[in-house]
Amino acid sequence: MKAVILAAGKGERLEPITHTRPKPLVPILGSTLLDRLISQVKRYASDIYLVVDDPNPFKGFRGVKLLIQGEERGSGAALKSASRGMGGDGEILVVYGDLFFTDEALSSLTQVSSENAIVAVRVQDPKDYGTVLKDSEGNLMRIREKAQEQNFNLINAGIYKFSSDIFSYVEKITISPRGEYELTDALNLMAAERKVKVVEFEGPWIDVGKPWNLLEANKLALEMESSKVNGLIEEGVKVRGKVMIEEGAEVKAGTYIEGPVYIGKNSSIGPSSYLRPYTVISKDCRIGFSVEVKESLIMEGTKIPHLSYVGDSVVSEEVNLGAGTTVANLRFDEKEVSMKIKGVRVGSGRKKFGAVIGGHVKTGVNVSILPGIKIGAFARIYPGTVVSRDVNYGEFYRGE
């Protein structure tokens, strides 16, 4: 069996994280979302093909073959690119490159006797997904994109098994109203002529399409891992619950950790820091004196040296927060925190959600960042300011 991971696309909904990295390379504990997908797919596929826009960020991945999508957009165009680079017959696994799920999703799919099958999951709010309609025998009737009816909550999970016949249907599709070639259009054509089995999956599944989904995925990953301590913990450190501390990391005296918490390679914590549950600190980070971090993802090489608070936030790589920087995570009226996604304000579904800070951002001392704020990569925040609106890529923000 061959496998195709569709990893092209701009990842606009994840901005500003994707200002400096492709969406599949977002961190999941000590690796990336794509690392995780490749390791899962390898159990079932002898050859793995990765469809990308730009091959350069992906050249370090061994055991996969890179295919360039080209100018045409959409999942259907990506599979067209795969068909030209793969060749041959046989069964094919197709997986979207922005998904977090457990291994049971693939095992249940590959065990189905039908040549063609898709994984479907039930969600509370289906409006952002393609709704799966199936017949009484569990065969696909149609996928309806962006359905609004709440009672149709079985959605397309973006995990498929196909015969090579799928490529003939992909060649028949035309551009959609969104200006893309949609894989679901090809799937609907196939379902009209052949049986496509619907496999309902009840395990963990997350579409990592919005910044808070990245926090959810890391939270699930933390819950699935076991404790390990390969780094140094000084005397005077208090640890409660599960921790994962990688080689070269050190936790200095006076620090208090409430697990589950992950600390990456060569990171330094403390002295007298406070890491609260579901915090993920990536490699080469510096969390300094009297810093509190709660349920946040701190990416590679970031420095939060002293006297700062970061709550329920995503902080990208090589960020430096000045002393006294506070990232608030609770609105004053305690209502749901929303955030602008592609120019439209979207509810996060969370009462507590902080900021999303792009790569290489620097803040001056005593900066306050309000909940639901996005700060673009390479921005600079002037000392003493209150960040009350989104900050653009590379902007020097002096306050309103």
Sheet with the most strands: spatial strand order: 14-17-20-23-26-29-33-36
Radius of gyration: 22 Å
Which descriptor suits the 3D outline?
Answer: globular
Q: How many strands, which pairing sense, and closed or not: the largest β-sheet?
A: 8 strands, parallel
End-to-end distance: 57 Å
CATH topology of the largest domain: Spore Coat Polysaccharide Biosynthesis Protein SpsA, Chain A
Give the mean pLDDT. 93
Task: Tell me the name of the CATH class of the largest domain.
Answer: Alpha Beta
Helix-strand category: alpha/beta
What percent of residues are in strands?
25-35%
Q: What's the CATH H-level homologous superfamily of the largest domain?
A: Spore Coat Polysaccharide Biosynthesis Protein SpsA, Chain A
Tell me the helix content: 10-25%
Assigned CATH architecture of the largest domain: Alpha-Beta Complex
Compute the number of helices: 6
Report the strand count.
Answer: 39
| Count of structural domains | 2
Return residue spans where pLDDT drops below 50 for at least 5 consecutive residues: none
